[in-house]
Amino acid sequence: MNQTTDRLTVGVDLGGTNLRIGLVDYSGAVIEVHEQSSIGTADELIEIIVQKINAWGSNNTIQSVGVGVAGMIDYEGVVHYAPNLPEFAGVPLQPLLAQRLEHPVVVDNDANMAAWGEVNHGAAQGYDAALVITLGTGIGGGVIVGGQIYRGAHGFAAEVGHWQFDPAGPLCACGGRGHWEAMASGSALGRMAQEQAAAGNAPALLALVDGDAHSLTGHHVVQALATSDEVAQSIWTQFTRAVGVGLAGLINLFDPSVVVISGGLVVLGEVLLNPIASVVAEEIEGSQYRFKVQILPAVLGDQAGLVGAAAMARDLVP
Ligand SMILES: [Zn+2]
Question: Are 260 and 131 in contact (CB under 8 A)?
Answer without folding.
Answer: yes
